[in-house]
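Researcher: Structure for this, please.
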Amino acid sequence: MKKLIALSKEELAKRLWSAEPKIKSILTNSKHMEEARYLIFDYLNRMERDLYNMKADTSFTNLNIVKKRSVREYIHALSNTLRSENEHLTKSSALELLFNLAKNKKGAPDKVDKGFLLEFLVLFSGITGKYSNPLKSDGQFEVKEAREAAIERSTQLDDYAETMTRYFKRYHTGFDRKILKQRNNLKKEIMAYFGADESDWKDYLWHMRYIIKDVKTLSGIVKLEEDEYEGVKCAEENKIPFEITPYYLSLFNKDGVCDHDRAVRAQVIPSPMYCRGVMEKRKKGADMDFMGEKSTSPIDGVTRRYPGIIIIKTYDACPQICVYCQRNWEVKNIDAVVKMPEEKTKEILTWINDNKNITEVLVTGGDPLTLNNNYIEWLIGRIAGIKHVERIRIGTRTPVALPCRINEGFLKILKKYHDWGKREICIVTHFEHPTEMTPDSLEAIKKIREIGINVYNQQVFTYYNSRRFETC
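Model: Predicted structure, token format:
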């Protein structure tokens, strides 16, 4: 690999076209780029068809099923790279660079770097089934004794591991010492702002009483960027639900947006564009139920999309409202009357009891852990009493936004109704970013796991948690 990188771009280009002469021929003989795109896609489509055509006389005939699948993935990767949609999104064209390079246009080599040529060398080698070691000088896999090959592979894996470790060090988690220190200082300032002490901070009901819902309070504690201030002010003025728990606010960087709190802020601070979008839809009377839940609700408070699973929504508020939430169209401010009337809840329970096809119930909302333990025990106990229900999921973001809510009373409820081999009680939460993982949230998860309850994480992919493998 090091020898290959040492080659000039001209030499790398020769190896590139040698790996896939057919594509070079298409590029060279096409009158314009769109003709080349069409012919390359046609060529790749035929290659993919030939992969599994037993009668086709191709170089793929002797490949085993695993290698054929790999070739197919290479074909898909190359196709996606050359699509016009991706050119529109990235504002660049790999096909144009290859087109000019193949036609020996003046200045074409200057517009590509070695990384570009190496990447396409791998892709071209992969689509022809020579991907085992496409960077060897002869393009063929070098056969070695088993132990010698294993040692070489182990050395390569060490290189990969070191590269990955160096790469991911750029990203932060909620356990970084510097961040912990900053957050602890901000926590003290938040407590001072509300006149609280450590015992208040450990009480989830205190956090519920002091949920931040206005721009004056928020900007009085942390610095907001101009667009953040505008977004929160717009949400407040137009009654667009916006809430942050004091605990989650302590995860912010006090002095303004920075690399390690960017994703945290983006989840709970509505942007001006978001607010304008909501206002425009309201003005037009448009339905904001973009998931179409109304059309999958056989009775009030129930969503059913799958054969054996239903969602019940007994509470339409959360301690903290996330911008990306699919239920923002119905989630209300914490101060509103949002608890489903008991009679309605009983109707849902009767409906589940009468339908033996329902084997799994997801209790969500809003966030059901906004409710007190007495109500939660009543609800979970009633569901657990239905014989054909084998699994009860509780969907909540409180381990992330309000970890002290996972108290002894709630843990006793989980333990009481979790019955090995008969009925599973489990938690599904939403850790969206590594900096949300803190000693407090870890302690909450640990308490749940220690009593034998599984915790699952459902991550919604957003811009900030999916950029450059940050979540990994």
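Researcher: Any notable elements?
Model: Confidence is low (pLDDT under 50) at residues 132-143. The longest strand covers residues 309-315.
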